[in-house]
Design brief:
Mean pLDDT: 95
Number of strands: 13
Structural class: alpha/beta
Order of helices and strands: EHEHEHHHEEHHEHEHEHEHEHEHEEHHH
Strand content: 15-25%
Oligomer: single chain
Number of helices: 16
Distance between the termini: 11 Å
Strand order of the largest sheet: 3-2-1-4-5-6-7
Low-confidence stretches: none
Largest sheet: 7 strands, parallel
Radius of gyration: 21 Å
Length: 394
């Protein structure tokens, strides 16, 4: 099959869960599909990574996204029906080139990764498969709800933008030939908002071979990891701040020699006022394997649901026990206290971390069971096969 795939990022390097997902799916889909990739980039320097995708794509074309807070995008969101997220990714140039590409013929379908790119898809008879990695309006609604009191004057405007986002998200779900979610939880929410909507689940996965073999020993002192994340994503910023301000002090009070690692793209910039604190390491890293294998546990107090977290799959594939919230555990068919530890309050999260640090036998058992679950059910090969089945059905 010949697929025209459109993504909001270049799927390399693997700095975010979305990039990791797209790269691995493309890599496995390439065995059965001929893929043309159209991607947004933040700056022209990202074009150096096209060579990492070329072995799996027939053709790759990138489109500069520009600055997020530009006057043009603000006016587009303020004076048109588009929400700010859609305005941020709207490109007449991309839409025109997609139209020209489709006219050349030969494509079987268009794959759109994330609904807010749908405004760039011209009217076409080709089937469109829309994959939503999370339910965006819920993420942005939670963000607005969690803003401090002093933002009260602008909150009505932000809520209005969230409403527009919600309406457009539902509109594009209905418009697509086939909608895919990454978790059963998201599928249920989509059907709740759009009755009789047909939704397939193409779950996230992990590169089993990369993470299953142990290369590094666990650190000699208790080490807590907050995933490997992109800190431009608001869910990660919120969770890291909760961990640093509310959960970590409780743990440190009970386990004096404990250390905390927060690893991810833009982490030093967004968490700069914590970078000099004792026993806290905040940094970016290209090689993520040492952090997964040296840590004692992963702790992520995520408060906003939607999608699923590739950092959890990677950590579990490394045998690392996970402590998170019910929202954080969405998208993983793991049982509480068996393959993962799920707690609701910040105090419960801290107590669970302290117990695992002090009881290494229990921690190892949870890590082993989590690794077995991920190895059996969450490979990227399985995810690609499911997506390929969706393609054939469409």
């Amino acid at each position: 099959m010949k697929i025209l795939m459109v993504t909001p990022y270049l799927p390399y390097p693997l700095h975010s869960g979305g990039q990791t997902r797209s790269f691995n799916l493309i890599k496995h889909l390439a065995k059965n599909c001929e893929i043309t990739l159209f991607s947004f980039i933040r700056d022209v320097n990202e074009n150096q990574y096209i060579k990492n995708l070329s072995p799996y794509c027939r053709k790759i074309k990138t489109f500069p996204r520009g600055k997020t807070w530009s006057l043009k995008k603000i006016l587009l969101a303020g004076f048109t029906p588009y929400s700010f997220l859609i305005a941020n990714y709207y490109s007449r140039k991309m839409k025109k080139i997609i139209q020209e590409e489709v006219k050349k013929g030969g494509y079987d379908l268009i794959h759109v990764e994330c609904f807010y790119l749908m405004s760039n898809i011209p009217k076409t008879k080709l089937p469109v498969v829309l994959v939503d990695q999370t339910i965006e309006y819920e993420v942005y609604r939670h963000y607005v709800q969690s803003l401090p009191l002093w933002t009260g004057l602008i909150k009505p405007l932000l809520y209005f933008d969230v409403l527009k986002l919600f309406l457009w998200e539902k509109f594009y779900w209905r418009k697509a030939s086939q909608v895919c979610a990454v978790s059963r939880e998201d599928k249920k929410k989509m059907i709740k908002h759009c009755h009789r909507l047909r939704v397939e689940v193409v779950q996230n996965g992990v590169d089993i071979k990369k993470f299953e073999k142990r290369i590094y020993r666990r650190a000699s002192r208790p080490t807590i990891l907050f995933g490997v994340a992109n800190f431009k994503w608001m869910q990660n910023k919120e969770a890291a701040l909760i961990l640093l301000q509310e959960v970590w002090p409780q743990i440190k009070n009970k386990v004096k020699n404990c250390q905390l690692w927060i690893i991810g793209r833009f982490a030093p910039q967004f968490l700069s006022h914590f970078t000099n604190e004792k026993d806290i390491t905040i940094k970016e890293a290209d090689d993520i394997l040492p952090f997964y294998q040296k840590s004692w546990l992963l702790l992520a107090p995520i408060k906003s649901g939607g999608g699923s977290r590739t950092k959890f799959f990677e950590a579990m594939a490394s045998g690392l026990p996970i402590i998170t919230t019910p929202q954080g555990a969405e998208g993983i068919k793991a049982k509480n206290n068996k393959e993962v530890i799920i707690r609701r309050s910040n105090r419960q999260l801290a107590n669970a971390a302290i117990k695992l640090i002090k009881n290494r036998l229990v921690a190892r058992e949870i890590g082993k069971r989590g690794k077995k679950l991920i190895t059996n059910k969450y490979s990227w090969q399985q995810s690609a096969e499911e997506l390929n089945r969706v393609y054939k059905n469409v």
